[in-house]
Amino acid sequence: MDAKFYRFLYSGFVLFGLYYAIFSQNFSDAGMMLGIALTFDPFSQQQPFNERPTWQKGWLLIHLVLVFTFFGFALLKL
User: Is 40 left (phi over 0), alpha (psi -120 to 50) or beta?
Assistant: First the structure.
């Protein structure tokens, strides 16, 4: 698929995730949407993770920590 299409899907799922977290306080759906967004890597898919620039690695790892944080909030809210 086209890299622009992946960026579009990534951005859409991130926006949905932030919407669920901020406006509806539904952290399980927010974590799910952000987790799905990670499947659409917004950077070059041909480049292995270890060869990526540090800022791209940091971006993706912070995104992953945010997913786990939202799932943690969802578990605490139960």
Answer: beta
pLDDT in tens, 13-55: 999 999 999 999 999 999 999 999 999 988 888 889 899 999 9
Q: In the structure encoding, which two tokens stand for residue 10, read together?
A: 């990534």
Q: Give the integer Cα–Cα distance in Å for 19 and 51.
A: 33
Residue owning tokens 């578990």: 75
2 — alpha (psi -120 to 50), left (phi > 0) or beta?
beta
Q: Are 42 and 15 in contact (CB under 8 A)?
A: no
Q: Which of 33, 32, 41 is nearest to 61 (CA)?
A: 41
Helix (H) or strand (E) holding 72: helix 54-77
Structure tokens at 72: 């943690």
